[in-house]
Specification:
The protein is an alpha+beta fold and about 100 residues long. It has two domains: about 50 residues; about 40 residues, no CATH class. It is about 20% helix and about 35% strand. It is built from one helix and four strands. The strands form two sheets. A two-stranded antiparallel ribbon has the order 1-2. It is globular and about 45 Å long. The protein starts with 14 loop residues before the first helix and ends in a 19-residue tail after the last strand.
Amino acid sequence: MPEEVLFKTEQRQTREDVAAYLRTVADKLERGDEISLSAGGESVALAVPPQPTFEVKAEREGTAPNTELSVEFELEWDENQDGDGSGGGGDLSIE
């Protein structure tokens, strides 16, 4: 299935600013509110179901000495279903 990017933005931020964005997302998830994203002339609103699939991935890209580290947090669900939270990998711990 082809991928359609509905919204994308990328810019350097302070850790504090990133934490503030993540807190806003966490608060909206906890309340069951839609998550609205906007930057420039682009915007999208997403209604996250009660049990989306949550993926966490840490990566190293490139070859030394030019490597880049990343951590990705992804919520995923079928657009026409509520999502069942299925997925493998065991219990997640973030410390």
